[in-house]
């Protein structure tokens, strides 16, 4: 009869960051251990609160199925001598607990197999539990030891519970023996709770003021926050990370609201959010759903229903007040001089020991911006001046007091200081945005000046770190160069900056003060960026074959690469695409086997078959049609024009033997195929496509 299994480890308060990983490891360990032993089981649920980790599995078989034991012994050649079993053969039989006559042979060796009854599941659980604890220990590099024992865990273990059906499974660990007892909320229901069956677990804890299920507790917290925010006339800022962390900190969530003094509203909203959310794990409120107008109040989640809520509110307000007071002091101090006044301090701040100070980096970024602007067809002197000024000031906030206290606000604070210092709005916005995109999925800078500063900043970091030989490895990327390369590519493509990235990388390398700046480093850097471009394109639905087809053209302008790729992806579903790909593969193979890269002109007087003339005429027509399309970067139109080659190409290969005996005829046909191949590489190398 299937039974329910419940295992719970009761602890002192667990660190929030380990709660989910440890709960998952416990669940996977017990479930996997049973499955490896062939024990049938049903649904699996995981539970976790700051004081417990538990797993509940329904429909667990009482015993293993019958087990087949199999053992291989010495080679048959070594098992007999003069027709009699050798000592090695007899020893193998004894190790199997049988007479030698019961031993068989398999794959040239002695072999013994038998079936034995499965063990009761209750007897398997101690070993499974030990395996699981080892897996859990691997997640926590620093574990605690308590009392007089030598065993360790992330926090001291207070109780163990293990029930299979209604019976206790006597697991022994941490100086404890498992029982049927669990415990509710530390203050609201501290008494022991004896469970008659695993199915009672969640309801019994709920009555004892514990939301044991993480997802349910998380939903309850979110509901309470939103309800309280609505009562306060605002909208709570609820980030997934903060909600997860608060969920891991409480067993019985109770929402509480507090107020912030009006004087703190002079601070930029991001400073208050950083103070309240990051340091205190409180939730901020805004008057609008876009979270742009901050309200002078906050919401927090308590782990207890207090008899004197006013005292709890006062305590939370008292804790946050000095932090906001410090932030306000730093803000006021920073505003005593304009942002540009901080530039002198950048010379004393090191960017990287081999690459100089932050001031040195700023000058390289400004020079690189000038080169980018010169390469942009439609750049204006106004944009150049705006981007240069923003670049000159973009790093100044790194030496301000607020950014020293809140490093995550770099860039944002520079934008505020620039505005307060009277800088143009475009300069302030570019400074604010120049770290974007910060990660995959976040937006690129919205302003052209911000895009230029961000792009140049990222290219300088890429070139500098590659120059000094510290490019990322498979496991380490301390300078976040993968993110920088991906961000630069997104700015070039999504910002529609029609510039040559390979040339920009070479320029950035030449500006570096140290390290290798030769062609090999430039090639490595370009290959690194191409791999990021590959990931970017494939993540957005491109096929690997289509990417490689465009890559084969050697184009190094990411925006042009994107245009070619999108045109190719639209062309691929058509029947002409597969036909042309197959024809170009065939043409390329013939040219390769001929051992020549022919650029000879085609002579019409050497045509012997009408299909040759027809293909030649169509090639000339299509080439003339494609020329203006190519000049206009109309790759969709170019591929549509190439589609017209399908009928004459099919007819040519049907009627013509390319490798004719006459060398002049053969050379002429090869030249014709070379023209076809060149057209098929115009937008992308069609021979690399399926077809």
TrEMBL record:
GO molecular function terms listed in the Swiss-Prot or TrEMBL record: arginine-tRNA ligase activity; ATP binding; glycine-tRNA ligase activity
Location in the cell: Cytoplasm
GO biological process, alphabetically ordered: arginyl-tRNA aminoacylation; glycyl-tRNA aminoacylation
Keyword Ligase recorded: yes
Catalytic activity: tRNA(Gly) + glycine + ATP = glycyl-tRNA(Gly) + AMP + diphosphate
Keywords from the named record: Aminoacyl-tRNA synthetase, ATP-binding, Cytoplasm, Ligase, Nucleotide-binding, Protein biosynthesis
Domain of life: Bacteria
One Pfam family this sequence matches: DALR_1
Domain DALR anticodon binding: 583-676
UniProt keyword Nucleotidyltransferase present: no
Enzyme Commission identifier(s): 6.1.1.14
GO terms under cellular component: cytosol
NCBIfam families: glyS
Subunit structure: Tetramer of two alpha and two beta subunits.
Family affiliation: Belongs to the class-II aminoacyl-tRNA synthetase family.
Name by which UniProt lists this protein: Glycine--tRNA ligase beta subunit
Taxonomy of the source species: Bacteria, Pseudomonadati, Pseudomonadota, Gammaproteobacteria, Nevskiales
This protein's encoding gene: glyS
């Amino acid at each position: 009869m299937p039974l329910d299994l419940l295992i719970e480890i009761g602890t002192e308060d667990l660190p929030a960051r380990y709660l989910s990983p440890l709960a998952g490891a416990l669940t996977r360990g017990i479930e996997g251990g049973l499955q490896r032993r062939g024990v049938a089981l049903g649904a699996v649920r995981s539970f976790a609160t700051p004081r417990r980790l538990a797993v509940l599995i329904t429909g667990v078989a009482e015993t293993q199925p019958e087990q087949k034991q199999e053992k291989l012994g010495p080679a048959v050649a070594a098992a007999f001598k003069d027709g009699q079993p050798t000592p090695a053969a007899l020893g193998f039989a004894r190790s199997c607990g049988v007479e030698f006559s019961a031993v068989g042979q398999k794959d040239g060796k002695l072999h013994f197999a038998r079936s034995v009854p499965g063990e009761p599941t209750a007897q398997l659980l101690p070993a499974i539990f030990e395996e699981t604890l080892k897996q859990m220990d691997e997640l926590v590099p620093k574990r605690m030891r308590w009392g007089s024992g030598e065993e360790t865990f992330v926090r001291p273990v207070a109780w163990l519970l293990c029930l299979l059906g209604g019976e206790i499974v006597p697991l022994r660990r941490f100086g404890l023996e498992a029982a049927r007892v669990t415990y509710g909320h530390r203050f609201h229901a501290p008494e022991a709770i004896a469970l008659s069956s695993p199915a009672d677990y969640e309801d019994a804890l709920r009555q004892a003021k514990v939301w044991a299920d993480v997802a349910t507790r998380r939903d309850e917290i979110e509901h309470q926050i939103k309800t309280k925010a609505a009562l306060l006339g605002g909208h709570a800022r609820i980030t997934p990370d903060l909600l997860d962390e608060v969920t891991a900190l409480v067993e019985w969530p109770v929402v509480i609201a507090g107020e912030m003094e009006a004087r703190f509203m002079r601070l930029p909203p991001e400073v208050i959010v950083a103070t309240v959310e990051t340091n205190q794990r409180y939730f901020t409120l805004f008057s609008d759903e876009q979270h742009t107008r901050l309200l002078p109040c906050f919401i927090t989640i308590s782990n207890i229903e207090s008899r004197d809520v006013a005292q709890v509110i006062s305590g939370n307000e008292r804790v946050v007040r000095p932090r906001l007071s410090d932030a306000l002091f730093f803000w006021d101090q920073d505003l005593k001089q304009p942002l540009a006044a901080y530039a002198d301090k950048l010379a004393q701040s090191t960017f990287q020991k081999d690459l100089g100070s932050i001031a040195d980096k700023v000058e390289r970024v400004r020079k690189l911006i000038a080169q980018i602007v010169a390469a942009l067809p439609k750049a204006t002197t106004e944009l150049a001046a705006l981007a240069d000024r923003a670049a000159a000031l973009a790093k100044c906030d790194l030496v301000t007091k607020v950014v020293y206290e809140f490093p995550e606000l770099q860039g944002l604070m520079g934008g505020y200081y620039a505005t307060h210092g009277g800088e143009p709005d475009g300069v302030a916005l570019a400074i604010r945005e120049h770290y974007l995109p910060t990660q995959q999925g976040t937006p690129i800078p919205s302003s052209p000046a911000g895009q230029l500063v961000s792009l140049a900043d990222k290219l300088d970091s890429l070139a500098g770190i590659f120059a000094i030989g510290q490019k990322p490895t498979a496991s380490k990327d301390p300078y976040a160069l993968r993110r920088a390369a991906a961000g630069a590519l997104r700015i070039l493509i999504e910002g529609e900056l029609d510039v040559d990235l390979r040339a920009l990388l070479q320029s950035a390398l030449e500006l570096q003060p140290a390290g290798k700046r030769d062609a090999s480093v430039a090639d490595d850097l370009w290959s690194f960026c191409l791999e990021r471009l590959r990931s970017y394109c494939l993540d957005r639905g491109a096929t690997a074959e289509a990417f490689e087809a465009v890559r084969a053209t050697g184009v190094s302008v990411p925006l042009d690469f994107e245009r070619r790729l999108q045109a190719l992806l639209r062309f691929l579903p058509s029947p002409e695409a597969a036909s042309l790909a197959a024809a170009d593969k065939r043409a390329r193979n013939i040219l390769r086997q001929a051992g020549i890269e022919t650029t000879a002109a085609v002579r019409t007087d050497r045509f012997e078959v009408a299909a040759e003339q027809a293909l030649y005429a169509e090639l000339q027509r299509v080439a003339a049609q494609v020329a203006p399309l190519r000049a206009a970067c109309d790759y969709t139109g170019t591929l549509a024009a190439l589609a017209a080659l399908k009928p004459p190409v099919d007819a040519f290969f049907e009627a013509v033997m390319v490798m004719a005996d006459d060398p002049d005829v053969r050379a002429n046909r090869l030249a014709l195929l070379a023209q076809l191949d060149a057209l098929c590489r115009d937008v992308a190398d069609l021979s690399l496509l399926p077809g």
